[in-house]
Amino acid sequence: MHVRNETRVRRFHAVSYTDKSNGARYKRAQVFRCSTCVSYQLGTEKKNFWKKKSTRHKRMTISAFQCLLFATLCVVVTSDINVILDNAKVKAKGTFSNKLYYISNIRVGSFNLARNWCSSNGGGYPAEIESLEEFAFLESLVKPNSGIRVFIAGTDANKEGTWVSQRTGTQLNVFDWSAGEPNNYQGQEDCLELLAARDGRLNDVSCYNQNEFYNVVFNVLCEKDLF
C-alpha cells in the first residue's frame, strides 16, 4: 500500500495474511502516525506502485543518458571536422548521412594524385556514390563552384562500361550522366568527374593528364567516414 497525505508520505510496512476460506494470500499495509491520509490499496491482482515508479525512473535515466551520448557524439564529430581539415585547402565541404565531403582547392593532373590528396588532407578518399540521394547532395555541392571539374571514384579500365570503385572494387550503379556521355573519347576515358558547368553531372575522362587531348587539371571531391 502506498500511503500519503497532502504534504508528505507516511511510514508504512506491508503485512501478509491468508484468507482461510480459500487459501489465497494477500497484502495489506499497517500505517503508523497517519491521521489524515489518502491510501491506495494494492491487492495481489494489482501492480506495485513503487515498482512502476522505479521502472519509469529507469526509463527516464536511460533516455537522458542516450540524449547525452548523442550530444557528445555531435560535439566530437563537429570537432573532428574542424581538426582534420585545413580550410585554406578546401573549396567547399558538407556532411551527408554519416560522411563528410570536401572539394580540394588545388587541382591535380591525375586520379592517383587526386587519391593521394584526399588521403593526406583529412584522411579521406575520392567520393564513391552509392545512392541517388547522395548523388543529388554531391551535385549540389559542386554546382555553386563555377567552372570546376572534380574527380570522383570510378573506373571502367578493366571492362568498358562497367564502372567500379578503385578503392574497393565494388561495382558502381548510380549515374547521372551529362548529355552525350559517357563517350570514351579517343578510347582513353576510364575515370569519372563531376562538371559544375553541367549542373554537377557525370562525365568520363582520362585518368591521366599526359597528352595533348587532356591538357586539363581537376579538383577532387573527397569522402570521409565520420563514424
From TrEMBL:
Coiled-coil boundaries: none
Protein name: Mannose-binding protein C
CDD domains linked: CLECT
Species classification: Eukaryota, Metazoa, Spiralia, Lophotrochozoa, Mollusca
Transmembrane segments: 60-79
Every C-type lectin domain range: 96-213
UniProt KW Cell wall biogenesis/degradation keyword: no
UniProt KW keywords: Membrane, Transmembrane, Transmembrane helix
InterPro entries named among the record's database cross-references: C-type_lectin-like (IPR001304), C-type_lectin-like/link_sf (IPR016186), C-type_lectin/snaclec_domain (IPR050111), CTDL_fold (IPR016187)
Annotated Pfam families: Lectin_C
Superkingdom: Eukaryota
PROSITE patterns assigned: C_TYPE_LECTIN_2
Classification via SUPFAM superfamilies: C-type lectin-like
